[in-house]
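Hey, sorry to bother you again with one of my protein questions. A protein chain has come my way and I'm curious about its shape. It would help a lot if you went through both lines with me. I owe you a coffee for this, so here goes:
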Amino acid sequence: MIGGAIGRNYAVTPKKNWIEPLIFWAIDIRDSGEGKSPAMWSLADVLVRNQSDANDYHEMKFKEWKSQKPKDRGDEPPPPRGYFITELTLEGLRTDLNYHPTGGVVVMLDEASALISGQNQYKNKGTDREAWLKLYDGKPARIARAGSSIMIKDARVQIVGGIQPEIFIDTFGGENGKYLSDGTVFRCLFTHLPPCHYELTREDWGDSNRETWNHILKLVYNWGDNAEPIKAILDEKAQSRFIDWRNSLDNMKPQLPKIIRGFWGIGKFVVYGAFAKSQSSHFFWLTRFYLMILDKSHHCCTIV
């Protein structure tokens, strides 16, 4: 969600001609009823309120425009800004991003299998898989349909959602492992917590914690909407640390089974307690996290 708020106004460069956009696809693998969706939507309060305000403002401006005589109307008001979407189509995404100030939008999926099923809606005429892989990289995607085409550029599309273990296996391992071999699955940050008992108590997510999170998100949106684009370039010290870290991870890769190497890429599996977080193919998303930490904690970047 932070990545969606920042959009294209911040990127990190580990070395010349290598730019990492802040794009993250996070999927929570747990059984039904384990609380995947409620947690996701609790963190999205600011997005939902912002979207509601944007829709109300657009409706007001559209009514004002419609009330004028046709000769006095001028251009129709642009559609409301998109903060989040719940349906995964490239046409809808392009519409949301047409007038977007940062290109940052969060795709909220109660069922993350839509990431794959949404790519397959044009089975007789190809799929949208390649376009989504381009969007993950922050690159332009052009999609040709019968009689028309669409272009999506400067997008910073974040994806967050949940999926059941069995559906995960069927979805990402289906079609003879196509989504393993093309790297789709390896671009996602997966978390998994086995079923366990949580005692129901009167305790709730504290108001202070909720207010702190919402305040942070509001600040980031305000910054992203008003800042000039920033590219943080690692200085010599930070670059050396980054290269050493990358090479140490890459040395471990041959020890892994082939099917796991895609997650490892040039990274590894990191386990925190019961959580296993896979580090993505070519460690793109891991690099994005690591470079953000280098930038913010060690102040060893040049801002351009």
DSSP finds twelve helices and 13 strands in the chain. The chain has one domain: 2-176+189-235. Residues 13 and 91 are 31 Å apart (CA to CA).
